[in-house]
Amino acid sequence: MIATRLSRVPPFERGLTLGDFLVPIRLGERAAAWQRNVALIVIGAALITFGAYVSFNVPQFALGNFYVPANPYVPFSLQTFGVLFVGATLGFRRGLAATLLYLLIGAVGMPVFALDAATGRHASGLATIATIRDGGLVLGATGGYLVGFVFAAGAVGRLAELGWDRNLRGSIAAMLFGSLLIYAVGIPWLAVAAHLDVSTTLQFGLWPFIPGDVVKLLVAAGLLPVGWRLVSRRPHDL
Question: 90, 112 in Cβ contact below 8 A?
Answer without folding.
Answer: no
